[in-house]
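Hi R.,

Here's the chain you asked about this morning:
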Amino acid sequence: DYRFHVKAYRQDDPNGRPVETEVLVACREPNTPLCVVDIDNTLAEARKRDVLFGEPNAMSDSVSVMGRLAKPYTVIYLTRRWDYLAKKTRDWLRRKGYPEGPIFAARGSGQVLDDNEKFKAGVLAKIRERFKGPGYGIGDQASDVLAYTRAGLQGVLFIEMCDLAKPSAVR
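And here is the predicted structure, written out as tokens:
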């Protein structure tokens, strides 16, 4: 993998100002196994105000699980967060100890407001044109799983148990 610091120009910025950002170039064989994972409410306890202004907590055991999955799979983060939050998201993933991987985020408000399945299916279709290896997709919504399975990945629906259903709540 290669990491570059670049100045990029956004096509949708009316002021035409450059944005400094970090770009990860992940070079893989076409048959590389993939693990595509959603971020909000799958890896991050994501209340909107925490995502925008605070520091979301990592979901219980998600860092260690993703670390184990990163050994046989290339991890790809797929989120409908606005790409404006990409640096904050990348920094959060690093601080929490998640494995390195490319982040695919919504481009502008149009994709943020798009149907979740439509957005993710579109991104996955482009990824799967080049990378046809087996893999998994992990998310917290049925629409995540539908997008993953339509892209030929095994979908995993992550459901956080409420406090009353946890074994520690039963005495």
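One quick note: DSSP finds six helices and nine strands in the chain.

Cheers,
M.
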